[in-house]
Amino acid sequence: MKEVLDFLKMCGVYYLATVDEDGHAKVRPFGTINIFDGKLYIQTGKKKDVSRQMKKNPYIEICAFKDGKWLRLSGKAVLDERIEAQIDMLDHYPELKGMYKAGDGNNEVFYLEDPHAVLYSFGEGNKTLL
């Protein structure tokens, strides 16, 4: 899990794919990733389409690319309403504190249940990380 976290942090931006209400794929850049309570977490705002999409169809995929390697991470996004999880995420991303507060009714954190991650490479073999 640490290797997944480190790769995504090294990339800075990764791309999160969901399915919208009409069954169409949606992809957007994301940047928050954290390990809390032994699970990988992401953060978003409750008012955003991505939040509604993950609640309706929680199966997501993340993709990131850096230096000829790319990571594909998939799993079920599960909303964690604990304030402690929100605080931990904001402590790791203090730049978000201007937009979000723990318990503000908009800040949301999701963890990945049953994550599966594979690191791919041009010229090197693929490596299953989770």
Q: Structural class, from helix and strand content?
A: alpha+beta
The overall number of domains is 1
Average pLDDT figure? 97
Proportion of beta-strand residues: over 45%
- Unreliable spans: none
Rg over alpha carbons: 14 Å
Could you tell me the CATH topology label.
Answer: Pnp Oxidase, Chain A
What's the N-to-C terminus distance?
A: 7 Å
What does this structure look like?
With 130 residues, this protein is of the alpha+beta class. The chain has one domain (2-128): Electron Transport, Fmn-binding Protein, Chain A (Pnp Oxidase, Chain A), CATH 2.30.110.10. It is 22% helix and 45% strand. The chain is built from three helices and eight strands, in the order αββββαββαββ. The protein has helices at residues 2-11, 49-56, 83-92; strands at 14-19, 25-30, 34-36, 39-45, 59-66, 69-80, 107-121, 127-128. Strands 1, 2, 3, 4, 5, 6, 7 and 8 form an eight-stranded antiparallel sheet that branches. It starts with a helix and ends with a strand.
Short description:
It contains 3 helices and 8 strands.
How would the blueprint of this fold be written?
Elements: H1 2-11, E1 14-19, E2 25-30, E3 34-36, E4 39-45, H2 49-56, E5 59-66, E6 69-80, H3 83-92, E7 107-121, E8 127-128
Antiparallel strand pairs: 1-2, 1-5, 3-4, 4-7, 5-6, 6-7, 7-8
Features:
single chain; 130 residues; alpha+beta; Pnp Oxidase, Chain A; 3 helices; 22% helix; globular
